[in-house]
Amino acid sequence: YGKNTIKFLRHHKEGKKHFVKEVEVCTHLRLISAQEYLEGNNSLVIPTDTMKNIVLVLAKKNGIATIEQFAIDICKHFMTTFGQVAYVKTYVQEVPWQRLHQNGVPHVHSFIYVPDGIRFCEAEQCRNGPLVVFAGIKDLKLVKTTQSGFEGFYKNEHTTLPDRQDRILCGELFCKWSYGECRDFDFDCTWNKIRECILEAFSGPPDCGEYSPSYQKTVNSIQMNVLSKVSQVQVIETILNNIFYDAVDMKNLGVTNDKEVLVPVEAPYGFCACTLGRKKFIEA
């Protein structure tokens, strides 16, 4: 059981400069006994309102240096404070506020919402077990207008999709990776590096791009790029929801539309998913 959707903004000042971190927190507990379910005995139950208040107080006392560290702080608090807690899991996602710049100069107290992917993390721990940290990015929409195709696929009497050597590749990306046991490293720097690896693998070199023969190959390229360049990542899960665009038929309007005006196909949509990891962690 637990408390979901604890939303708040943490604001602090360093001299004239202001800082904000707005987050949504979900905290789940499993107790050493199920007596509240089986017998109606609530003596071990930590009320979810108490859980909410603990999250808010920890934000006030500790601040939020990174969302990963904040998730770790929450897990450690429940595990060390309450002997009846057998398992704790905390999910934190961050609202994408970025400091506003005017003529290249960072503003001291103004911020802009930049929806270029939502950063999130999870921390979980069983009593007498290691504290494990996950992180990720979701709702990241990416598109490239060429260097993508799909051909040579299996065909039967129900196949109407033609082979395509040049198409728009667009998708909404979800990536979640495991850091394994909690270690002391720069979560911000590592997350930013992984994000760069994702964008690099999706798009290819800036002057020419890189051909994608399928959404599946693009997903694999993203995962391989992350694992090859970021040693802290042990396992990475990736889901790419496909967003299709169809060219508008303008023949009746007396206009030739050579993929210049397109409309999104909202449903149904396809997806591809894959989990890839270093051998010793997959086997474990």
UniProtKB/TrEMBL annotation:
> What GO terms describe the biological role, i.e. biological process, of this protein?
purine nucleobase catabolic process; urate catabolic process
Q: What is its main location?
A: other
Query: Catalytic activity, per the record?
Result: urate + O2 + H2O = 5-hydroxyisourate + H2O2
Q: Name one GO molecular function term.
A: urate oxidase activity
Q: Quote the record's binding site residues for O2.
A: T48, N242
| Localization per record | Peroxisome
Fetch the InterPro entries from UniProt: Uricase
Query: Which GO terms of the cellular component aspect does the record hold?
Result: peroxisome
| Amino-acid positions noted as binding 5-hydroxyisourate in the UniProt annotation, renumbered to this chain | T48, D49, F150, R167, Q216, N242
Q: Where does urate bind?
A: T48, D49, F150, R167, Q216, N242
Give any Pfam family that matches: Uricase
Sorted alphabetically, the keyword list is: Oxidoreductase, Peroxisome, Purine metabolism
- Pathway annotation from the record: Purine metabolism; urate degradation; (S)-allantoin from urate: step 1/3
Instruction: Cite the EC number.
Output: 1.7.3.3
Its annotated function is as follows:
Catalyzes the oxidation of uric acid to 5-hydroxyisourate, which is further processed to form (S)-allantoin.
Q: Which family does it belong to?
A: Belongs to the uricase family.
Protein name (database record) = Uricase
Recorded source organism is Centropus unirufus
